[in-house]
Amino acid sequence: MYLSQLFNGLATPLLYAQFRQIVWPTNNSILAFIRTIVTRPDLARYVKQIVLQDVVDGLSGIEIDEDTKGLCLRRFDDIRKILLNESTPNASKLTWKASETSEVEGAYIPVLVCSLPNLETIIFRESYKPECFMSAVECAGALLRKRQLSQGSGLSIPFSQLRSIRTISTESKYGYLDFDELHPFFNLPSARDFEIALANGEWRARDTEEEDGALWRVKPRSSPVERLSFQYSAMTDHCMRRIVGSCANLKELHFTYGRIHMYEPDFTPLQLQNMVLEHAATLEVLHMNYDDDWHKVLWDDEHNDSPEVLRFDNQLARLSRLRKLSVNFAALFGIGVPVIQRFGGALAEREPPRVSLSAMLPQSLEQLEITCCDHRVIPHLQELAASCRDERFSQLRSIKCVFAEEHTDRLKVMHVAIPEVRVEFTFFGLERRQQMLYLPHVPLKERLGLDQSQLFDDEMLLYRGKIQ
Question: Which domain of life is it from (predicted)?
């Protein structure tokens, strides 16, 4: 008996640490889990991570018994009593109350998530207008920032431990969610990691506070988020500045470009550099893959007279805490491989600018990765090697160059030896370079043999962009 109790005590926290919604062949697991969490708060406290499908219609097609409906309605009422008081924003109150006019099924997922006091990570598919769900996040953030504790209900304020938020779109062109829906996550005091795949044209920001909506509700340097990751995304300078500028202690920024149609210019490398310089005292990891095989929106029209904005300059060296840098060849040197696949006409031919890699890089750098380069990178590496021999980059341990195979003259690719630095050359064709960008978006037709739950798992494995 003693051993059985001991085993149960050890196994239970592990058993409930993570819940992953499975929809194939049946979606009933989510209903059983909700009932367990609502009736057994002693088990709810063990849940650390939850992976969900649609947070609005997550129970679509499931017949819900009256007992479970009653339990969830009572819990919904308890949660409302916690979140709706004089401390929560008026807009959040209205949005939350408006959800009561819809069918109660739309509140089951918020009831579940708000009943997990120690939830640290939430992963969910993009949903259409998740008003009830996001209102709960917004109200909880307002309460938590004022350090107000709930009284009498036995429930803590939801999302008080939430650190990591990850979401992925299921819509192939524009997506549903924009910053207007997702901004409340940035105001949670515990939030540290925000990752989204398919952040797109709908994230565009306007020019005035009145029009800008949610971007103005997250104040500059106010969010505790330390890691931002945008995968398969297309963003404007204005919107990126607001989002990056909202972070008070930004340590990591990851961005991989997505071939998403926009009507405004994509942000440029120099614009990005100016954004992150505001975080020079904290930024440790910068990963930017601009997809040099694809033509960026309006870059040739907007920047023909100022090509310098299409690359970094020596101000990059001011990132005094930067340890890892992964960036495209063109963003560093202002020249790139020929664009094979484009949405528009050819870019103007320009003389390569005079660039000193050693003058551009921070001396704190430990790992450097240059993607989509060709043999023209070799003289720059040789110049960097000379600086390393002069002990200017004493922390540098790794250099990796990913060459565009079809554009590289291998006879001109000479090995560059740097003492105590591992130098690695890799040659990737177009298909492999695209896999680096679009790993989360492999077409379903290429995944034959996988069941629906495995497809969902694969899509949630968002490409981290971390330098190996």
Answer: Eukaryota
